[in-house]
């Protein structure tokens, strides 16, 4: 169910649930929430918010503009999560949701967000395991891992993230390819084998489709940027 923002009581309840999932509310703060409707969140880690269909560059730019107006310290990942880097109150979450509603966007409730998070964890395990796991369909791996029907998982994921599970898997694989290219000194052949690509050509074509450049050009650009930084440091 989406946070509609049209029923303040329902919105307050769901935002409080979202708050409790991502941060621990102290006993004192819980009492304050009952009396004042405001609960400050204590975060041991950043608060992740999931926004329906936050996939296009234009949508991300519009969301950035609205969140900047609120003076939030945040980041938006390439994969469509808003990561809030400060303590947040339920009142503050209401402000965020109100800003999103202006754009026709909405926060996703904690149940769906939790499911999406679990799917992402499964995808990370799938991609990073590479050829350590027996070859099997991505859908079978994720469905077995979460013990839920893949069709249902796929529907919820697409609704929340605005992209399919398969596209998310591709995006994550490409991010890992970048990481391996820059940090491990592996060849494309070695990376292709490690990540279960059918061939180097397959890896290169997918990389270019996602990033707009080939892996070779990506490495060259990185090398030039590092050289530029070093030269500036010398100057």
Tell me about this structure:
With about 240 residues, the protein is mainly alpha-helical. It folds into 2 domains: about 10-110, Alpha-Beta Plaits (2-Layer Sandwich); about 110-225, Arc Repressor Mutant, subunit A (Orthogonal Bundle), CATH 1.10.10.60. The chain contains 11 helices and 3 strands, in the order ααβαββαααααααα. The chain has helices at about 10-20, 25-35, 55-70, 90-100, 110-130, 140-145, 150-160, 165-185, 190-195, 200-210, 215-235; strands spanning about 45-50, 75, 80-85. Strands 1-3-2 form a 3-stranded antiparallel β-sheet, with helices on one face. A hairpin with a 4-residue loop joins β2 and β3. α1 (about 10-20) packs across α4, α5 (about 110-130) packs across α8 and α8 packs across α11 (about 215-235). Residues about 1-45 have low confidence and may be disordered.
